[in-house]
Automatic annotation (TrEMBL), chain A:
Segments crossing the lipid bilayer: 12-34, 49-69
Organism superkingdom: Bacteria
A Pfam family recorded for this sequence: DUF4212
Listed name of the protein: DUF4212 domain-containing protein
Cited InterPro entries: Na_symporter_ssu (IPR019886)
NCBIfam families: Na_symport_sm
Residues of the Sodium symporter small subunit domain: 5-81
Keywords: Membrane, Transmembrane, Transmembrane helix
Organism the protein comes from: Colwellia ponticola
Automatic annotation (TrEMBL), chain B:
Superkingdom as given in the UniProt entry: Bacteria
Protein name: Uncharacterized protein
Species the sequence originates in: Colwellia ponticola
Length: 82, 146
């Protein structure tokens, strides 16, 4: 029972980290910091614009696989059936 | 692909839609705030010779005069536009411009053509262009070069 509780707590922690990164990449880099980032360029595009259009989506994909890998480790650590 | 990745792939589009809606609300509230942006002249300003462009980012305003009619043409639609002629005592005379066909073109009769008729003549002007969510203002001088 205690193990399940710990497993769930670690899972929640992981989800909050993912959501924080999701917020930072999409709202932070794509909206709130778009003006200063637009001073720089990536592949010919303004960096703030690039994050709003493509960069955040790449980050979301990265987050999905990172979350999957971390959860796999958690499953093994707490011996949860997959 | 394990169950966690599958689940994350199902949740991601929902987050993307939520994010899209939240971003839309944020940008809409930002746009609703009144902003004052200053326009600067792009190179030398010569209204009589149709060479006077005021610029701020992607927004450009072209000011020209022909036969006593001063015209303002902008890259974005305007809600209103007022041109002020400023004399040597810094006294302003406003000339509210009227829309011509569409909100990109505004004009009014002004004495600008007479004031700037001679080569070397100079006139100080101010422009207030109102646009949804803000005002573009400018103080500039037009000098006739030819």
């Amino acid at each position: 029972m205690e193990n399940k509780e710990k497993y769930w707590q670690e899972n929640l922690r992981l989800i909050f980290i993912c959501l924080a990164i999701w917020f930072f990449v999409s709202f932070g880099l794509g909206l709130l910091l778009v003006e200063p980032l637009n001073e720089f360029r990536l592949g010919g595009y303004k960096l703030g614009f690039w994050f709003a259009q493509q960069g955040s989506i790449y980050a979301f994909l990265g987050l999905i696989f990172w979350y999957g890998a971390k959860m796999n480790k958690l499953d093994k650590k707490y011996d949860v059936e997959s | 692909m394990n169950k966690h990745v599958k689940l994350a792939f199902m949740v991601a589009p929902i987050l993307a839609i939520v994010g899209f809606i939240a971003a839309d609300f944020y940008k809409e509230s930002e746009a609703a705030k009144d902003k004052i942006v200053q326009l600067v002249t792009q190179g030398h300003c010569d209204i009589v010779n149709k060479s006077c462009v005021l610029v701020s980012g992607e927004f450009k305003v072209n000011v020209s005069d022909e036969a006593g009619v001063t015209e303002v043409n902008s890259t974005f639609p305007l809600d209103s536009a007022t041109l002020f002629l400023v004399d040597k005592n810094n006294k302003m005379t406003p000339y509210p411009l009227g829309m011509i066909k569409n909100p990109y073109y505004w004009r009014n009769n002004t004495p600008l053509g007479q004031l700037l008729a001679n080569k070397g003549a100079s006139q100080k002007l101010r422009l207030i262009a109102k646009i949804k969510g803000g005002q573009y203002i400018s103080e500039f001088s037009s000098q006739t070069v030819k």
